[in-house]
Amino acid sequence: MNSAEFRKKYFPNVLDEDWNDWKWQMRNRVTSYDQLSKIFDLTDSEKQALTMDNAFPVAITPYYLSVAIDCSSVRRTILPNPQEHNIYPGETNDPLGEEPAMKVPGLVHRYPDRVLFLTTEYCSTYCRYCTRSRLVGRNSVKPSTCMSKKQRWEEAFKYIRDHKEIRDVLVSGGDPLTMDDESIDYLLSNLRKIEHVEMIRIGSKTPVVLPQRFTPNLLNIIKKYHPVYFSLHFTHPSELTPETNKACNMIADAGIIMGSQTVLLRNVNDDAKTLKQLMHKLLLVRCRPYYLFQCDPIEGSAHFRVKVEDGLKIIDELRGYTSGYAIPTYAIDIPGGGGKIVLTPNHVIGKDGDFLKLRNFEGKEYLYPDYITEV
Questions:
Q1: 45: closest CA among 5, 99, 85?
Q2: 185 is known as an active-site residue
Q3: Nearest-CA neighbor of 167 among 201, 196, 187?
Q4: Which residues contact 321 (CB under 8 A, 6 or more apart)?
Q5: What is the pTM of this model?
Q6: How far apart are CA 67 and CA 246, in angstroms?
Q7: Active-site annotation holds for 71
Q8: 7 among known catalytic residues
Q9: Which of 127, 248, 287, 295 is catalytic?
Q10: Which of 160, 240, 272, 319 has the CA that lies 20 to 30 A from 10?
Q11: Cα within 13 Å of Cα(74), Cβ side
Q12: Roughly what angle, to the nearest 10 degrees, separates helices 272-284 and 308-318?
C-alpha cells in the first residue's frame, strides 16, 4: 500500500499537514511492542526480540513503516531479531576502530586528509545492522566526554582548524539531518569558515526514512555552504517511493551531489536483480550508486552478512548487463580501522607470451597486448 493508504488505515485521524511535517514524524516514531503489534502480524521471533532486555532500541518513523508494511526485506532491517544477541568470532561493538582514532569527542581522524565528525547520536529510524549501535539511541556518551553539544563541536572545529591537512569533513552521527535547521546552519557555517576545508559531506538516511525533512528552508541553508555532498544510505528498491523521489529531486535541484552507500545484506538485497533495480531507480533521481559495502561485523550481525565470494558474483552479474554508472564499488571497511579496500571479480585469467588473457562478462576470453616498446 502507498503511504496515503497506510495512513488512512493506521493513522486515520492524522491530518495531511501533520503527516507531511518532519517534526510530527519524529515525535510519533513507533518504538514499542504494543504499537508494532497493531501494524504488523509479528512473528514469534520478532515478538521474542521485542520483549528481550538490553536490545538495540527500536524506533521507526510512521512514514517508513508505510514502506516496510508490504516489503519483508525492509521489514527485516528495522524489526529486531533474537539473533542480535548472538555474538560470533570477529564481531565487536566498534568494528571500524573509531574509538582509538577519536582525537577529540566525536571527531575521528583516521585518513590523512579526512575526518569523520559524529555530530549526534540520534536517528529517526534505527537500522538493525547499524555500525554505530554502540552509540546511537543509547544516550551513551562516556563520563569523560559529558559536555554540551556546543562544547564538543567547538573542540572539533578547533582540531580541524589546527590540522591544515584536513580538506574533507564527513558529517555523520547518528543522522545529522535530524537536527534542527539552526544547528545545521551553525555547523556548516563554522566548517566553511575553515579555509583548508574543501569538501563537506553529510552522511544520512533521511531521504529514505524521513523525506519530509527536505524543506525549502533546509536546502537553502545547505546551498549557502557549497560544495556540499550527500552520502546517502539506500538499501532496497522499495525505498524509492514518490515521497523519497521528490526529496531526492529537490536535493539535486539544490546543487547537492548525492551518492548512495548501500550495505549488502542477506535476504534483503543479496541478488543482482534487486540491486540492479535499486541502482537504476537511484540514477533516475540523480543519485549515483557509490559503494556497495560488506556488512560491518558489529556484534549480533551475523544473520545479515553475505559471503564475500557471493558479493563478487553479484558484481560480476551486474558488469556488462547495465550501465557503468549503475555499478557501485564493492568494498570492505576493514575491521580495526584499516580503512576501505575495493573488491573486484578477477577477470585476468593468465598470460600468453606478451599478451594478457582476459575474460569478459559473458565468459568469453580475449587477448590484450601487455608489453611496452622502446621509445
A1: 85
A2: no
A3: 196
A4: 272, 276, 361
A5: 0.93
A6: 15
A7: no
A8: no
A9: 127
A10: 240
A11: 24
A12: 60
216-225 mean pLDDT: 98
Could you say which of 33, 111, 122, 291 is catalytic?
111
CB 127 within 8 A of CB 179: no
Active site residue 130: yes
Give kind and range of the element (H or E) at residue 246. Answer: helix 242-253
pLDDT tens-digit map of 129-165: 999 988 887 654 443 445 688 899 999 999 999 999 9
CA separation for the pair 127, 131 (Å, rounded) = 9
Long-range contact list for 68-74, CB < 8 A, 24+ apart?
Answer: 69/1, 69/6, 69/39, 69/40, 70/1, 70/238, 71/236, 71/238, 73/235, 73/236, 73/238, 73/267, 73/268, 73/269, 73/274, 74/235, 74/236, 74/238, 74/239, 74/268
Distance CA 283, CA 259 (A): 10
Host H or E run for residue 332:
strand 329-334
Q: How far apart are CA 116 and CA 97, in angstroms?
A: 12
Q: In the structure grid, which three cell numbers stand for residue 225, read together?
A: 555552504
pLDDT digits (tens, 9 = 90+) for 92-127: 999 999 999 999 999 999 999 999 999 999 999 999
Q: What is the DSSP letter of 328?
A: P
Predicted pLDDT of residue 361: 87
> Which of the residues 29, 128, 132, 276 is marked catalytic?
132
> Within the chain, what is the greatest distance between any pair of CA atoms?
79
Residue 63 is among the residues annotated as catalytic for this protein: no
CB atoms within 10 A of CB 38: 10
Of the residues 103, 114, 161, 192, only one is catalytic, namely 114
d(CA 288, CA 260): 6
Give the 3-state secondary structure of residue 59.
coil
Q: Which residue has the cell 529510524?
A: 125
Catalytic site includes residue 333: yes
Is 340 noted as a catalytic residue in this protein? yes
Task: Kindly name the residue from 76, 94, 123, 126 that is annotated as catalytic.
Answer: 123
Provide the terminal-to-terminal Cα distance of the chain, rounded to the nearest Å. Answer: 67
Whether 75 is catalytic: no
Look up 127 and say whether it is catalytic.
yes
